Amino acid sequence: MATEMPRTDVVVIGLGAVGGVAVLPLVNAGLNVIGLEAGGWMGTRDFAPDEIRNNIRDWPQAVPKAKNEIPTSRANINFEAVQGGGHPMMNGVGGTSLHYWAQSWRLNPWDFKTVSETTRRYGANRIPEDSTVEDWPFAYEDLEPYYDRVEYALGVSGNAGNIQGTLHAGGNQFEGPRSRAYPMPGLRSSGFTDMMGDAARTLGWQPFQGPAAINSEVYGDRPGCFYHGFCDRGGCHVAAKSSTAVTTIPEALKSGRLKVVTHARVLKIVNNADGRVTGVEYLSGNQVMFQPADAVLLASHTYENSRLLLLSRSKEFPEGLANNSGQVGQHYLSHHQGAPVIALFPKNLNNWYGLPAQGVAIDEWADDNFDHGDLDFIGGGNLWAHTDRKPISAAKMSTFDLVPNWGAKWKAFISENADRTNASYIQKTTLPYRGNYLDLDPLVKDRLGLPVIRITAEYRQNELGIAAFTQDRMEEWYRAAGAVQIIRAPLGTAMGTSTHAYGGTRMGDDPSTNVTDRYGFAHESPNLGILGASVMGTSGSRNPTLTAQALAWRTAEHLVANWESIAG
Amino acid sequence: MDKNKKNCIAQNQSQEGGGLSRRDLLKGAGLTGAALIAASSGAAIAQTPSLQAAPSRIPVAEAFETLTSAESAALDAFASRIIPSDDGTPGAREARAVHFIDRGLTGAMAASRDQYAVGLAALDSLAVERGGVAFSFLSAAEQDAIIEAMTQNAITAYPMLNAGFFNTVRTHTIEGTFSDPYYGGNRDFVGWALLGYPGVRIASSADDVSQGSALAPSRQSAYDMPAYTKDPVAGVQPEGVSHGH
Q1: How high does pLDDT run on average in chain A?
Q2: B54: which DSSP letter?
Q3: CATH code for the domain of A73
Q4: Which residues 6+ apart lie within 8 Å of A491 measured at CB?
Q5: Res A382: pLDDT
Q6: What tens digit of pLDDT does each residue of A447-491 get?
Q7: How far is Cα A199 from Cα A217, in angstroms, rounded to an integer?
Q8: A184 forms bridges with which residues in the sheet?
């Protein structure tokens, strides 16, 4: 029998990148909020420059909950899904925003209108036949004010390319119009990124310093970045990374209306006979608790959002909460970030320090920023060359087929070349397809005996076409910068787990193809809001977090503005 | 098996004019097969002269937490062929990669413990079949031939000696050689020196990462830095606690 806690206005499941943002507009409106977080608090002293702990052993993200709920994965139904790797989700106050790279992009306007813009420019037959892609229920311009709010509430560094329609050199010439500049200039360039920027200009491209939720200078009471590196899988040792744990959550706590409940492992969202949610059941130690609330915001992670809904079965929702339409888990996609190009240069690059968000971007080959008339795909990829190197990963560098991967020759090779290599990061448009979905694994369970999520998803011709095309562009760029050896990693087809995971609770006006409405509230359970990239129907060719955070702020504001009709 | 043993043995042999190999000594003692494997580590210690060449501030011989003496000897020899030191510069042995692996196998790498037990035992059995001695007493060329066959999945009599086991040992040897010294390997920062990595730092300036600049090694573990020790800091409230939850 669950121990019932005192009622609250809103319970937020997960205080990570999106839940940690949503709490601020809620408490600012006077609502009382309880945030249930599976992990605990971590501080700057927990974030050492330690490659073993951060990168090899998956700490700090691999805490017991996520570590025991690693999704299974298969390309399609002809394979058995297997568990492997780590869980891309992190438990802890701040969640994945503690350890992410903190690249903080807005999606480009095309990403919201993929179907209509492709149809207008190239014809409807250019949408891949097996894709379930839809236009978003609103445009970039509708989300712009929320992007702006989040950029300033968190602290995002970047060089604007388009302010109210006026283009600015040094920023992304293809971004949608922004209402004002970033709150801070972009992060510092490095010797290596300058070298890559110069090479891009010789190709006629317009390189720019990409945006990051990392302070480039003092912002509020937090310092600018120290550029020591080690934040690609670790937290920031000086709190210069604008995770929600050091920005919106402490700000919301000041109101006295946010209560953070750590080490709360949510089991189930409970609903009543009307299909409305009434609260959340969670495990605290070995005790089952029930937290009643007038509204619930589900903000765990793409995989866990679908999983919790599918586990929350009831008489009203026998196949899982808000899933009488069968749409929970559908339209899943994981961002195609594979198929890198790896380059070898004839000199040391001095790349041992700095961070992956400190990079130089090329957007010419992303989205619909170039003519696709003669191409066999839509969308594209953002090219990213970044600094950051650590010794273990350096020793594991590609041998470029020049030497074996062990022994005296290999030792001499890595000794000479450890600081002479660079691997690209190319984020590519990924579409949702029929046959790509999340469901509960029929065999694999977590420690509580609850099934883990199963990923069934593979890239299709459109993704493979983009991968080959963008690898060509990346190779051109590296060659222009003086690379003497190039290796292209294979494209692969199974999507697998990813930090950039989308869909499963897609947002849209049509309840037969979408789980949530245009504001992020479940069509079938109106006082249940869903936050995170799980509501996104397209990936864009850039990191999802800022968009998910802008959507979270928008959902929270909608709840505040419509409190009586939604939660009353 | 400690890291200097083979070097010392090699010295010993060259002093003897190379006339009598380690293998001959053991064969002369009438040891064969499993008995030889069991005896080899102990016999080697008995033959080892004082270890005066070793730096004094770090104990050379250190207890293994989970590896047996035979396992540690085989693994040390294996790791030393992955990152050898016969070019005169430190490799996996000098970095004490085996100590890193031993410690890891009791905790974060425990899932690999059985693979090591099976694989290392098979390695010694195969070595005895081929050369009459434990793997660590084969010549470097003989060891390399076995490792090369493993990478090709070509050792049909011992299917556990495959590319998968090789990859496990290679990965862990790299980690042990190039990790923060806190974890028991990368002794004296020899791994970081091999790569030209100037070491962990609390900050880096634009000049530090300009093209052509070369920083002096920091020679610091992350946990040498006061910011990351877990010692309670007087008068400082740990973060999180200050939020009152």
Answers
A1: 96
A2: S
A3: 3.50.50.60
A4: A338, A339, A459, A464, A467, A468
A5: 97
A6: 999 999 999 999 999 999 999 999 999 999 999 999 999 999 987
A7: 28
A8: A157
Set of chain A residues whose Cβ sits within 8 Å of the Cβ of B82 = 406-407
The verdict on a CB contact (< 8 Å) between B227 and A351 is: no
Q: Please give the residue of chain B at the shortest CA–CA distance from A391.
A: B178
Distance to chain B for A422, nearest Cα, Å: 14
Searching chain A, which residue's CA lies closest to the CA of residue B171? Answer: A396
Instruction: Tell me whether residue A7 is in a domain.
Output: yes
Q: Are A431 and A538 in contact (CB under 8 A)?
A: yes
Give B83→chain A minimum CA distance, Å: 6
Give me the pLDDT at residue B236, please: 53
Residue owning tokens 């060659």: A479
Q: Do B209 and A407 touch (CB under 8 A)?
A: no
Examine residue A546 and state whether it is found in any structural domain, yes or no. Answer: yes
CA distances from A61 to A39, A91, A98, A344 (A): 9, 6, 9, 31
Asked if residues B222 and A377 have their Cβ atoms less than 8 Å apart, the reply is no
Smallest Cβ distance to B84: which of A262, A405, A411?
A411
Inter-chain contact A407–B81, Cβ cutoff 8 Å? yes
- Beta-carbon-side half-sphere exposure of residue A87 (alpha carbons within 13 Å): 27
Q: Which amino acid is at A451?
A: P
Domain ranges of chain B: 63-226
pLDDT, tens digit (0-9, with 9 covering 90-100), for A288-342: 999 999 999 999 999 999 999 999 999 999 999 999 999 999 999 998 888 899 9
Q: Is B209's CB within 8 Å of A190's CB?
A: yes
**Residue A342: enclosing H or E segment and its boundaries?**
strand A341-344
Cα distance from B74 to chain A (closest Cα, Å)? 16
The H or E element spanning position A250 is helix A248-253
Q: Identify which of A350, A352, A408 has the shortest CB distance to residue B211.
A: A350
- What's the maximum distance between 2 C-alpha atoms anywhere in chain B? 74
Distance from CA of B177 to the nearest CA of A (A): 8
**How many CB atoms neighbour CB B90 within 10 A?**
20
- CB contacts, 8 Å: A224 with chain B: none
HSE of A198, CA atoms in CB hemisphere, 13 A: 9
Q: Are A221 and B240 in contact (CB under 8 A)?
A: no
ipTM comes to: 0.93
Q: Distance (Å) from the C-alpha of residue B94 to the closest C-alpha of chain A?
A: 14
User: Which class for B13: exposed (0-12), middle (13-18), buried (19 or more C-beta within 10 A)?
Assistant: middle
Domains in chain A: how many in total? 1
Q: Do residue A418 and residue B195 have CB atoms under 8 angstroms apart? A: yes
Q: Are B73 and B136 in contact (CB under 8 A)?
A: yes
Tens digits of residue pLDDT in A511-544: 999 999 999 999 999 999 999 999 999 999 999 9
Host domain of residue A519: 1-98+243-329+502-568
Measured in angstroms, the CA of A530 and the nearest CA of chain B are apart by: 25
Question: Half-sphere exposure of residue B151, counting CA atoms within 13 Å on the CB side?
Answer: 14
> Residue B31 in 3-state DSSP?
coil
Task: For residue A450, give the nearest of A245, A317, A275, A268 by alpha carbon.
Answer: A268
Half-sphere exposure of A340 (CA within 13 A, CB side): 12
CB-nearest partner of B239 from A41, A260, A411: A41
Record: contact B180-A262, CB cut-off 8 A: no
Name the DSSP letter for residue A56: I
Residue contacts between A and B (CB atoms, under 8 Å): 154
Contact check, Cβ <8 Å, B213/A350:
yes
Query: Would you call A259 an interface residue with chain B, using a CB distance cutoff of 8 Å?
Result: yes
Structure tokens at A282: 């969670």
* Cα A454 from chain centre: 19
How would you class A138 by CB atoms within 10 Å of its CB: exposed for 0-12, middle for 13-18, buried for 19 or more? Answer: middle
Say whether B180 and A52 touch across the interface (CB within 8 A).
yes
Contact (CB<8Å) A395/B178:
yes
